[in-house]
Specification:
Elements: H1 2-21, H2 29-44, H3 54-82, H4 85-99, H5 102-117, H6 121-128, H7 141-188, H8 200-224, H9 227-237, H10 246-257, E1 260-262, E2 265-267, E3 270-272, E4 276-278, H11 285-318
Antiparallel strand pairs: 1-4, 2-3
GO molecular function: ABC-type vitamin B12 transporter activity; threonine-phosphate decarboxylase activity
Pathway: Cofactor biosynthesis; adenosylcobalamin biosynthesis
Protein name: Cobalamin biosynthesis protein CobD
């Protein structure tokens, strides 16, 4: 029980650090991890030479994941076993803080919203192009607002709630493993000739690790918005989305906000058909801001629930007063 109470305090401290400091402007560990992963990928998945069979490319992708992830997990495991408790607590706070991106997410979304409020569509397209993979230059103001809102909702699940979940479940190794797999999926999880097979292991691991956190996120969005509509959209629309985890998150989020998201979107390869999510008017700059507030309130709700559960568990463990 004391361990759970301590883990909850680590979550509180990490979110406070994220609020005060945001992401490191320089020397973020994920940047170095991304470079290491890119080097491994270039070696095991070269663009030139004979094309291996699909099975061989999947095997290479598995080897790449192991090579990239194993060193970090070994270090994390050593820290957990070797550090005295006060230093381990500090390491866990730092690790979870670096895995979280609540303030950074809000700053990216707010910048897009401000450009839209100012009527600067060119600037809004430029900014949203930094956080989504679609062709931002082909978006109108509603398309930019929808793209930014979808990014807020989906990344809220990946970079906030899933990080908290995996820390609580598996400590420092758990949160680091999730963040690494999520990053590898973002780098290799494309359905194109280069990554269709090589990135499949990373993509499937990301799906597996995010399955429960995504549904807890969808439930969080529903609890804090238009609850009945969010649950209805989740139940009716999520299965039609091409991602088993983004579907529930974005359908519930769109319903909670009372807007319509999804629909056809322009990508480098052309217009991609996508189902509609949510119900209500089209997204605007105000919708992006509402999505940010929804995620922030969701993080607050998680902390309140965790603190209540930890307090009850501690009280029960020590014995109720007679």
């Amino acid at each position: 029980m004391e361990t759970f109470f301590g883990s909850v305090l680590v979550c509180v401290a990490a979110l406070v650090l994220d609020r005060w400091l945001g992401e490191p402007a320089r020397w973020h560990p994920l940047v170095g991890f991304g470079r290491w992963a890119a080097g491994v990928e270039r070696y095991l998945n070269p663009s030139a030479g004979p094309v291996p069979s699909p099975g061989h490319r999947i095997l290479r992708g598995l080897v790449a994941v192991c090579l990239v992830v194993a060193p970090v997990l070994l270090v994390a495991g050593w820290l957990v076993s070797a550090l005295p408790q006060p230093l381990l607590w500090l390491a866990e706070v730092a690790g979870l803080w670096l895995a979280l991106s609540l303030r950074g997410l809000a700053e990216h979304g707010q910048a897009v919203a401000q450009a839209l409020h100012a009527g600067d569509l060119a600037r809004a397209r430029q900014l949203v192009g930094r956080i989504v993979s679609r062709n931002a230059q082909a978006l109108d103001d509603r398309g930019v607002a929808a793209a930014a809102t979808e990014s807020m909702l989906e990344n809220g699940a990946d970079a906030v709630f899933a990080s908290l979940f995996w820390y609580l479940v598996a400590g420092l190794p758990g949160v680091l493993l999730h963040r690494m797999i999520n990053t590898l999926d973002a780098m290799w999880g494309y359905r194109n000739d280069r990554f269709l097979y090589f990135g499949r292991v990373a993509a499937r691991l990301d799906d597996a690790m995010n399955w429960l956190p995504a549904r807890l996120t969808a439930l969080t969005y529903a609890a804090l918005g238009h609850s009945r509509l969010a649950l209805h959209c989740w139940r009716r629309q999520a299965a039609a989305w091409d991602s088993p985890n983004a579907g529930p998150v974005m359908a519930s989020g769109a319903g909670a906000l009372g807007v319509t998201l999804g629909g056809p979107a322009p990508y480098a390869g052309g217009l991609k058909p996508r189902p509609l999510l949510g119900s209500g008017p089209a997204a605007t700059a105000a919708t992006v801001e509402a999505a940010i507030r929804l995620i922030q309130r969701g993080a607050g709700l998680w902390l309140v629930v965790l603190l209540v559960l930890a307090t009850i568990a501690r009280w029960l463990a020590t014995g109720a007063p007679q």
